[in-house]
Amino acid sequence: MKLGLQLDTLKIQSVADDLQYLSSIGRKRIAMIVRDEEIAESDALGEAQKIEAECEQQAEVAQTQNKISILEKENELREVKAKLEQQARSEE
Fold it and tell me: Are 39 and 31 in contact (CB under 8 A)?
């Protein structure tokens, strides 16, 4: 102020301390973020595997039901054929 200078902007390029306190805080925060990310990834993989297993189980159930339905229809067809054959024999 005595020289008539006025500071418009101030740009701080780096901050450091002798005890590396600021670096320690940064490392701790980075480690926490990495840990949280690994936990989230693990949870997501576990959930995906659970959903995949449920879908496979549902697919197996659907296949079994389809096989049962096919067998029932085949049995009905055999019954109809047997009745028609019996009717044809009786008419002969």
Answer: no
